[in-house]
């Protein structure tokens, strides 16, 4: 039995991958079901909200989250209890600790704490798929492919017409959300397609494509990448557009120009080096007085705002309101959307960086997690996950990455190999599957 290993080499002549039929059980099965749930909810979020509103069952929206909580339980049982993975134990312990810190630092309102836990659960669902080559499963690959196309089509259609759910307002625990087109960048309408929000629509298309890019013919992968980039351009999601362009360039280069880029070592190098982006904000903030990106181009104005305000804001706020939180963090969900249900709602400002927000929430407790993430990239052998790590690090350099849920699920999936690491050694490939017995090849 073998998973996490490709069935062939990437062919520059257009050969397709022939995925092995596989069965999952245990935690990987729970993770797969939750991931598909998050994907379908985020891809068609506006439609779901509209239908639930018409049926007068708005709380049915949270039914998808139940799948995530089931995956969280399966992750704890499989990786922490049965396998005693040290990093699974650590990340599970970090969850209640960060909730307690949030309750003590921010607010003890159940709506806030519940939203914070709900926010992070997709990460654990993705981690359930450690050792699993998800897109090698034919049905999963088809779902990812269809939803990627649907997201692209939805963005294109939204640019040409108004959907019936446009302007829909949904109230959750006293906080109102409106599904509508938002004017922001250079007075250009940001369209959200079937997702109802431009960043979410672009993220779904981008990461669904990146998951399957090695399992289709290189020419088709590149064409699909160009379509994703075009959709991101229409949605004015500049971060996703940049990532899509660079990823398409990498895929084209490894297929037809530089065969050496196909190797696992090249992918490991790319993924590992991408963690340099974690520390780049420190350099940019330190040199902010000497650089003016807005003067170089008006399109870089938002980037300059990140350097001068967004990235510094969490630590300035914590230094003022709770200095001890600079070490312990302010708790789960303290500085992003769950805090809208807390006393800190009026203090919220965009942070626009996954790692800065994570450090603000978890403090020094996040340092071991970051170290293991780097180690995971350095030891990984799944090229799809390695490219995902590199693209995620670039994507979350400009965005928080905690929503939509499928983005956080993708982060979990890409870094899930950390839970196959043992102190002093790692378990992967055939050894992982032989030892853990959660995978079966269908007859």
UniProtKB/TrEMBL annotation:
TM spans (from-to): 29-51, 57-80, 87-106, 112-131, 143-161, 191-212, 219-236, 242-261, 273-294, 354-375, 387-414
UniProt entry tagged with the keyword Membrane: yes
Signal peptide from the UniProt entry: none
Keyword terms of this UniProt record: Membrane, Transmembrane, Transmembrane helix
Protein name: O-antigen ligase domain-containing protein
Originating species: Croceicoccus pelagius
